[in-house]
Design goal:
Elements (H helix, E strand, L loop, with lengths): L15 H11 L3 H11 E2 L3 E2 L1 H14 L3 H12 L8 H5 L2 H16 L5 H11 L3 H6 L5 E7 L6 E7 L2 E8 L3 E7 L10 H12 L3 H10 L2 E3 L6 E3 H9 L5
Helix pairs in contact: 1-2, 1-3, 3-4, 3-6, 4-7, 6-7, 9-10
Length: 241
Amino acid sequence: MVNWTQMHDCYEDVDRVPALLERLEREDNPEAWEELGYRLVLEHDLVFPASFAALPSLVRLASGSARARGLAGEILRRAAGHHGCDHLLADCTHAITEFRKLLDQHLQSRPEDYLAAFLDLLAAEGEYHWSAVLGDFTDDFYHLACPHCAVDVTIAIGDHGRYSAIRDWNLGDVDRRNLRPATSDELSGSGRWMHETALRDGLKALADGIAHLFGKAECPHCASVFNIADEYASANRPVLR
């Protein structure tokens, strides 16, 4: 049982969120959803105790409500932020497990919001970093430092090409080197799971982008070869606090 007297929202209110959830359990009301959304998720990726306290209710509603599914996903994708509520997130283990199952089933229907649901599933799996930065690979760029010579390298994965390069703000991406995508056998861990999920659901472009992201790049400066995902994640992975 949630002690709502301790669960403030973005306005420091402790009674409005449970009232809105109770209303939404009875009826699908657009105004109530709108208010609940801005009380639970504020700009600049901020969430609050009430956000995590609301997760079990949102997950219960999510099987029949796209709004509930989306709001639950928004909250989870911010779980690595500086909210000071990790103990509340730990209490949501069962709800998150159920949410993962629901999202996985949703993805298999190849919905229009596939990428958003895919990112939500990454967050539900604890892959907060990739949930925050993964795009649809039509125009994606990842910036990292070469692990051998420390030069800044731009990784491009999209319709414009799949390459590593040195970015010159006057000349554009220069000294391009083709990326080396990982094969199915070479993928492991999160990359393998992400790739297999996209292939299962027929998202070939997404799967191909993931194979390149978890593949290798050559540094245009020193010609060393490194794993893109490992270097990018080590430099940008959020830290739970």
